[in-house]
Design goal:
Low-confidence stretches: none
Order of helices and strands: EHEHEEEE
Largest sheet: 4 strands, antiparallel
Distance between the termini: 24 Å
CATH class: Alpha Beta
CATH architecture: 2-Layer Sandwich
Radius of gyration: 17 Å
Number of domains: 1
Shape: elongated
Oligomer: single chain
Mean pLDDT: 90
Number of helices: 2
């Protein structure tokens, strides 16, 4: 089981990744992973130095809709998000292997 699940590529995170001094990237990580485990996984996978790391447990949103068969309720899954700030002069290229 991997600690890093996938990177978060939203408009907001793309803008934070393009900053000059402090490049920030976000990842969906394993719920039980600690900050030290996340830091070492990112440094090993992308060969960068992590300056700071913030984590947040994101609660899933409740969803509901009305269909022919009746009222349907559901919920998107909970996940843990890690926002990583890299040392100055470093960056991560997610698209280099495509």
């Amino acid at each position: 089981m991997s600690i890093l699940k996938k990177p978060i590529n939203t408009e907001k995170m793309t803008q934070l990744g393009e900053l000059k001094d402090h490049k920030q990237y976000a990842f969906v990580v394993d719920k039980n992973a600690s900050k030290a485990q996340i830091r070492s996984a990112i440094e090993a996978m992308y060969t960068v130095n992590v300056d700071s790391l913030r984590t947040v447990n994101v609660r899933g949103k409740k969803r509901s809709r009305f269909s022919k068969s009746g009222f349907i309720e559901g919920k998107s899954p909970n996940y843990k998000k890690a926002v990583v700030t890299l040392a100055s002069g470093q960056s991560i290229d997610f698209y280099k292997n495509i």
